[in-house]
Amino acid sequence: MSKFSDMLSQARRGQSGGAIGFFGGKSRPAVKPRAAALLIEFPAVDAGEAEAAIKAGANGLLFHWSGSPLESASLATLKQLSETIQSQDENAALGLRLLGNGANIERKMLESLKEHGVHFLIVPLQAPARLLTTHLKDFDLAVTLPWRGNDPLYPLMVRNLGAFEGLSALHLDGRELPLERLSIEEALGYRAIREALRLPALLSLTSLNSEAAAYGLLTLGVQAVIVPASESTAATTQRIQELREWLEKVHRQEEKELPPPTVPQPSLSTSFEEEEEP
After folding, report:
1. What is the CA radius of gyration of the chain?
2. Where is this region: Disordered (predicted)?
């Protein structure tokens, strides 16, 4: 499994406390399972704030990227940051969110990002389609899908993304979605997109500040939520702690899936042909 997949799955399992490393030099606090992984989004790379976010309980980090080649200093910062956050949480993942159309992105650029600690990339629908066929081991690609709740054919169009094996996840924008007042009809719209493509889903939110909103989030069945960092490290830490509490509170252990029902087969002696009279 890739680091991105590990982050999503580990968040729902939680982790016990214990020593980190071969000699057990650092202690790791126990983490309760959550309804979804928690990612903090930053407009620019800030190693201090990013490391503080992981220590506060975030499962991953997301930074904005214009799509232009990064300078050596920026790549070195990403590499160091990736190693630092994984020393705090071995399942933590680092990603970039493409803000432009990415017309100049080449495979070598993606390879360089991967080599410097980037685990996944989120791109818009306007990005080059060739990115969906660029397979890099342990480097995941997610596509941002705009919300079109009034278009009943939208899930059918989205379904065509399943033809691209390079796609690992979907990214949905729920910043204007009133989770605490989410109707069944609205939930069905999101679910229709999810069912059209059975892929992990990331949902961008402004905040999650009530039990009702947390249960509204649960109905969407997403694997991760993305929230923006606050103006200060202290405010970001407080936001993460509040989000952790709600995600842990509404989490429920998944029941073991039963095998699909089967239709009994007729015995070999059964025949629908008329028997011949002696």
Report:
1. 22
2. 251-278
